[in-house]
Design goal:
Layout lengths: L21 H21 L2 H20 L4 H10 L3 H23 L15 E2 H17 L3 H9 L4 H25 L3 E2 L11 H27 L23 H19 L6 H14 L14 H6 L6 H19 L10 H20 L4 H10 L3 H20 L16
Antiparallel strand pairs: 1-2
Helix pairs in contact: 1-2, 1-12, 2-6, 2-9, 2-12, 3-15, 4-8, 4-9, 5-13, 5-15, 6-7, 6-12, 7-10, 7-13, 14-15
Protein name: YeeE/YedE family protein
Organism: Gracilibacillus pellucidus
């Protein structure tokens, strides 16, 4: 059975494309322009820039079908490491950009820059493992959920809703996991080891090379099938329509994450906004959210302010809109069928991802991508535990009618 998500082979072969959905494209551009104007007149000017960056992130993710969930699943099930090698390229470019930015320590606007470095403890181990299972049941990771929603994949609206609920519950429980259970202090390869950013950069590149080599060894040993191609085109038109090569998307995502760091002072993240949205909804229903430990200190400002003042919220809206425009440009936007089984998988997967992301100090973007790019040990551990959760999820997916790649399959 062929996988139905973002599994694909990035070849240069030109194939027929659907016609652009011009009414949707025009509508998306109008919404985007209106949002930019609203942010310009009501929020800090940085927010408008972040919306544009988010839009470019979503456009890139959809055009390349750049996956984290499917990349882990393909490697765990049949040993195909093509997408994981793209991850390593993305991270290599990211650390190359992050090292001087973090060393310099200042944004475009003169603010301070801070790395995404978090503790290593029970909270991280449990949360990342839960997230690994959840993303395989929910049908997408944090970024994957956003761009699938933008592309019209109906069941992902369920995943997103319960992602928000799970993240809100995780925020409520977080003090127990972080204060009552053991953990080591945050470890940075750059600042905790004496290597400095130059030394940490060299070590990081060596680790990425090692991981890429391991995927090649596993791929050869298992005779892993390649990914099948998706419709695309050639020349300048490929920028706007058709599938993008994985390596091009990897570089683009790393550059955009670097721009995010230089714009708002912290790397790209996704799920803190989900906790904010859910907590504001709970507050509207009369729940005393402000008394939660999670919303004390610096976080209290976000709870009291407009959601449009939250930079992660703005980035998320941009990702959804960018994916919508990309899908419409490719003539691919349409709502898909929801079944009882895949709806239940989305409920469970969304809850597990939301709860797990709060415990693990982030998701595949904030913890894995942003953490490793920030030279944080917790990012590597997140990846290992999420991959372990993926192995478990391979046995759970068939219970919900979800496919698991087989050695004889091609991937689309």
């Amino acid at each position: 059975m062929k996988a139905v998500d973002d599994m694909r082979n990035h070849t240069e072969q030109e194939q027929p494309l659907n016609k652009p959905q011009m009414p949707l494209i025009i509508g998306g551009l109008v919404v985007g322009f209106a949002l930019i104007m609203y942010l310009l007149f009501t929020q800090d000017s940085v927010q408008s820039l972040l919306l544009v960056i988010g839009l470019l992130l979503g456009y890139t993710l959809f055009h390349a079908r750049f996956g984290f969930t499917s990349a882990f699943r393909r490697f765990a099930s049949v040993g195909n490491g093509q997408a994981l090698r793209a991850h390593m390229l993305m991270l290599a470019v990211a650390v190359t950009l992050f090292a001087p930015i973090l060393a310099f320590g200042s944004t475009f606007f003169g603010g301070e820059v801070s790395a995404s470095v978090s503790p290593v403890g029970v909270s991280l181990l449990v949360g990342a493992f839960m997230f690994g299972i959840g993303m395989q049941l929910g049908g997408g990771c944090a970024s994957g959920t956003l761009y699938a929603v933008g592309g019209g994949r109906s069941v992902m609206f369920i995943t997103l809703l319960f992602f928000i609920i799970g993240s809100t519950i995780g925020a409520y429980h977080l003090p127990f996991w972080t204060e009552d259970l053991p953990a080591f202090e945050p470890v940075s390869l750059a600042t905790s080891t004496g290597l400095g950013y130059g030394g940490a950069w060299i070590v990081s590149l060596a680790l990425f090379g090692l991981i890429a080599w391991i995927t090649l060894v596993v791929e050869k040993k298992k005779r892993a099938p390649k990914m099948a191609s998706l419709p695309t085109t050639k020349g300048w038109r490929r920028i706007f329509r058709g599938s993008w090569p994985l390596f091009a998307a990897a570089i683009a995502l790393a550059v955009l994450n670097g721009l995010t760091l230089m714009t708002r002072g912290t790397p790209w993240g996704v799920t803190s906004a989900f906790a904010l949205w859910g907590s504001k909804a709970a507050q509207f229903l009369g729940i005393d959210v402000a008394s939660w430990g999670y919303w004390q200190g610096a976080n209290a400002v976000a709870l009291e302010s407009s959601i449009f003042a939250d930079s992660t919220t703005v980035l998320n809206l941009g990702v959804i809109l960018g994916a919508f425009l990309a899908s419409a440009a490719g003539g691919l936007f349409k709502f898909s069928k929801i079944t009882g089984k895949n709806a239940m998988a989305s409920v469970i997967g969304g809850l597990m991802m939301g709860y797990g992301a709060r415990l693990a100090f982030g998701c595949n973007i904030g913890a894995y991508f942003g953490g490793i790019a920030s030279f944080s040990l917790h990012g590597y551990i997140w990846g290992i535990l999420a991959l372990a959760g993926t192995f478990i999820a391979l046995y759970l997916r068939p219970l919900f009618g979800l496919s698991v790649p087989k050695p004889k399959d091609s991937f689309c």
